[in-house]
Amino acid sequence: MSELSIFVDESGEWGKLSEYYLITLVLHVQSDSVAEHIDKYERHLADSGLPDIPFHAGPLFNGHDGYEDISFANRKRLFFAFFTLARNLPFRYVTFAHLKTMFDGNKIRFEAQLKRDLADFFLSHLDEFQSYEIIKVYYDNGQQIVANALKTSISYALSKEAVVYRDAQPKDYRLEQAADLMCTVELTALKFDKGTETATDRKIFKNRRDFRKNYLKILRRKQF
């Protein structure tokens, strides 16, 4: 039975704290095994004396949550190890990004745009998506606006009921962690392009040229 898994992550929120709002979908055909790549990644961490912490870019970059007692040098090693895993995993991804000021604070307009983004994407690849007998969506239900957009767009565009696992925690799925990475990289690209990158961005990626050459160009080969 052909099955597609979609792992979802977002960056930003509707309030005033973030300039951009991004949604990333990581799409994995279930028959494409990820086990060998994940085993190799976990062996590398063990052999290198690095902790196997579920990847979460924000806390890793800033030394928060489970990364408090880890040096910056080791946090950067953890980042590169997961980046290497992600570039080898068999998935494709798509990111939808919006500058929130374009919606003049109108949440209804913004949610409608998210639904259009997703529905247009599914409709533009309709033959492929309709070829799967099962589509499972993994999302931790972090924001209701995203959960609503996912269910509405899939139901509208594909005329099928997707199984949405709202309790899908990133710690349980490496591909959910990969969605976090892809979302972070696409957000960082926006910031570098606009010249609004942070000191942490420069500490991790150095500059726009190095970021695009060593990270963005490599991961964008996986774009849907």
Q: Can you tell me about this structure?
A:
With 224 residues, the chain is an alpha/beta fold. It is 51% helix and 16% strand. It is built from 9 helices and 5 strands. It has helices at residues 35-48, 57-62, 72-88, 107-124, 126-130, 144-158, 174-194, 199-205, 208-219; strands spanning 3-11, 20-29, 92-99, 134-138, 163-165. It has a 5-stranded mixed sheet, sandwiched between helices. Helix 6 links the parallel strand 4 (134-138) and strand 5 (163-165). The longest helix is centred in the C-terminal third of the chain and has 21 residues, at 174-194. The radius of gyration is 18 Å and the shape is globular. The chain starts with a strand and ends in a 5-residue tail after the last helix. The model has no long low-confidence stretch (mean pLDDT 90).
Radius of gyration, whole Å: 18 Å
Separate helix tally? 9
Instruction: Using the alpha-carbon principal axes, give the shape.
Output: globular
Please indicate the percent range of residues in DSSP E strands (runs of 2 or more). Answer: 15-25%
Spans with pLDDT under 50 lasting ≥5 residues?
A: none
Q: For the terminal residues, how far apart are their CA atoms?
A: 22 Å
The class by helix and strand makeup works out as alpha/beta
Instruction: Give the integer mean of the pLDDT values.
Output: 90
Strand order of the largest sheet: 3-2-1-4-5
User: What's the main sheet like?
Assistant: 5 strands, mixed
Order of secondary-structure elements = EEHHHEHHEHEHHH
Helix content: 40-55%
Find the count of extended strands (DSSP E, 2+ residues).
5
